[in-house]
Specification:
The protein is an alpha/beta fold. The chain is built from eleven helices and seven strands. A seven-stranded mixed β-sheet has the order 3-2-1-4-5-7-6, sandwiched between helices. Belongs to the PIGL family.
Length: 258
């Protein structure tokens, strides 16, 4: 009987959390992300990821938020994800997922550089990463960049290298008026708590000044599933479970990079 009550309680909290995603995203001062309390201004945003499917597995709440607020989103993927020799397939899958997420295909750039090959233990050239990101910033008048934090959600070295490349760019071009935000990594319990982590994310965001942290709720989790399903080469049973139970499907906490 006790186990039945626990299961029912978890289901009720899960459903309540999904209902919460229908409400506005949260920041400590109620300031809308990328708005700064002013009239809504369209931003040119660059999302930098390491592999095809990162956008769907980790950043879909952010992408859905940006699109719903009319911001102009560019996607830069630093590799084709060719660790298993399926780089060309995964490249096309990213285009298909981007269409689901309503990122214009002409604003999706996928690199296949010898210095940025997918795989654990392969250190990417941070200076070259910084240079390529800077070229995209200049080419598209980017004023906001979003990427992984220094743990990279899963600890994947390629995710971490992307963060370090962006950090190098910001360090060397501090005079530029560029906002940079990182996706906050969580511990493993929160990572697999599904939409329940929405409440913990909102509470933890209250510990930060409003200008440094925003909590973005995924207003359309179904779109995240559809986008990830476009990555057919990766859409195996354990990734289906990941997308279902991962908190990153339902909420993104973005922290400003100083």
């Amino acid at each position: 009987m006790a186990w039945l009550l626990i299961i029912i309680s978890v289901v009720l909290v899960w459903v309540a959390s999904l209902c919460k995603t229908r409400q506005a995203s949260f920041s400590p001062s109620k300031t809308v992300f990328l708005n700064n309390g002013e009239a809504l201004q369209k931003r040119n945003v660059l999302l930098v990821i390491a592999h095809p499917d990162d956008e769907s597995m980790f950043f879909s709440p952010t992408i859905n938020f940006l699109n719903s607020r009319g911001h102009n989103l560019h996607l830069l993927c630093m590799s084709t994800g060719n660790a298993d020799g399926m780089g060309n397939i995964r490249k096309e899958e990213l285009y298909q997922a981007s269409a689901i997420l309503k990122v214009p295909l002409q604003q999706v750039k996928i690199l296949d550089h010898p210095d940025f090959q997918d795989g654990f233990g392969k250190v990417w050239n941070h200076a070259l990463l910084a240079k390529i990101i800077e070229e995209e910033v200049i080419a598209h008048a980017i004023d906001t960049i979003i990427t992984f934090d220094d743990y990279g959600v899963s600890g994947h070295c390629n995710h971490i290298d992307v963060h370090r490349g962006l950090w190098m760019l910001l360090h060397d071009t501090s005079e530029r008026n560029i906002e940079a935000w990182e996706l906050v990594s969580t511990n493993i319990l929160r990572k697999y708590s599904g939409p329940i982590d929405i409440w913990l994310s909102i509470l933890s965001s209250m510990c930060y000044p409003s200008e440094n942290m925003h909590c973005l709720l995924n207003e359309n989790p179904r779109k995240s599933f559809l986008a990830m399903a476009q990555h057919r080469s990766q859409w195996v049973w354990f990734r289906k479970l990941f997308v279902s139970f991962s908190s990153y499907t339902y909420v993104n906490r973005l922290r400003k990079i100083k």
